[in-house]
Write a structure and sequence with these properties.
3 strands; alpha+beta; COMM; 125 residues; 4 helices; 3 domains; elongated; single chain
Length: 125
């Protein structure tokens, strides 16, 4: 559902001739409802985050190792797909893997905040 300016911004990097852009523009605006309906049919219906519960478990000591500490995070991730009932995912990880996961998610968030990705996201909506 692009407006005229967004459509022009989308095609600007491709550097097509004015004649081809005009043909594409007419075709798009004549058929954009059909294009939108077709794209929605192929859109993947993914689970969405609903809740996260976590607990830190650690073994303080045992007879053979003495004072070794092994922390483990237990996570219950609750997701939901549409109006279906929530699905619980039980996960277990150590602090190093959890830190790496957090770093990767922060990196993905920083990537999506770039100008190019914001332009793409604006055109997708």
């Amino acid at each position: 559902m692009l407006n005229e300016n967004d459509f022009n911004d989308t095609l600007a990097p491709i550097k097509l001739s004015d004649e081809i852009i005009e043909i594409l523009r007419e075709s798009y605006f004549d058929n954009r409802k059909d294009i939108r309906n077709t794209l929605q049919e192929f859109y993947p219906h993914l689970d969405h985050y609903q809740n996260l519960e976590w607990r830190l478990d650690t073994q303080i000591a045992n007879r053979s190792l003495g004072s070794s500490i092994n922390p483990i995070y237990l996570l219950k991730l609750i997701t939901k797909c549409g109006s279906d009932k929530p699905i619980e995912h039980l996960l277990q990880t150590d602090p190093n893997n959890l830190k790496h996961l957090c770093n990767e998610l922060e990196s993905a968030l920083n990537e999506i905040r770039t100008y190019e990705n914001r332009l793409i996201m604006r055109n997708i909506k």
